[in-house]
Amino acid sequence: MSKILLVEDDEIMPKIVARILPTSEYELDHVSNGKEAFEKLESTNYGYDLIITDIMMPYANGFEILSRVKSQPRPIPVIIVSNAGNEDMIMEGFKLGADDFLKKPIIPAELLIRVKRLLMKNK
């Protein structure tokens, strides 16, 4: 079972992602801001297989989370999901090491395929 951390301040998005990712294959943890994400990552010793994060959030944004995760000895794959999809933000995410980028509203089948692809690639 793959462990996924969802960092999202929108209340609806975690419900959508939970419906898309089957509980038989994925264990989904949700936090609602960057501060909670750092606390969760540290308390689990960065023990996630994948992180899905928004960009615009309180306390620490998705780019800050991405930078910290990618500086770890075992970097975790990161998918950025955002409705702030201008080209500069997308390029900044990839420069910081994002593995993928999805624009909101997400397409369920696309999220599932991209999650599976990244998890297979990193086994």
Quick structural summary:
The chain has helices spanning 13-20, 34-43, 62-70, 87-95, 108-121; strands at residues 2-7, 26-31, 50-53, 78-82, 100-103. With 123 residues, it is α/β, with parallel strands linked by helices.
List key phrases describing it:
single chain; 123 residues; alpha/beta; Rossmann fold; 41% helix; CheY-like_superfamily; phosphoprotein; Response regulator receiver domain-containing protein; Sig_transdc_resp-reg_receiver
Task: Please provide a written account of the structure.
By secondary structure, this protein is α/β, with parallel strands linked by helices. The protein has a single domain, classed as Response regulator (Rossmann fold), CATH 3.40.50.2300. It has five helices and five strands. It has helices spanning 13-20, 34-43, 62-70, 87-95, 108-121, and strands at residues 2-7, 26-31, 50-53, 78-82, 100-103. The protein has a five-stranded parallel beta sheet with strand order 2-1-3-4-5, sandwiched between helices. The longest helix has 14 residues, at 108-121.
Under CATH, the topology can be stated as Rossmann fold
Radius of gyration: 13 Å
Number of E strands = 5
Output mean pLDDT. Answer: 92
How do the strands of the widest beta sheet line up side by side? Answer: 2-1-3-4-5
Gap from first CA to last CA = 12 Å
Low-confidence stretches: none
Category by helix and strand content: alpha/beta
Helix and strand sequence: EHEHEHEHEH
Which CATH C-level class is it? Answer: Alpha Beta
Task: Please tell me what the overall shape is.
Answer: globular
Helices, by number, come to: 5
The number of distinct structural domains comes to 1
Strand fraction equals 15-25%
Instruction: Tell me the name of the CATH homologous superfamily.
Output: Response regulator
> Could you give a short account of the major beta sheet?
5 strands, parallel
Q: Write the CATH architecture name.
A: 3-Layer(aba) Sandwich
Give the % helix. Answer: 40-55%
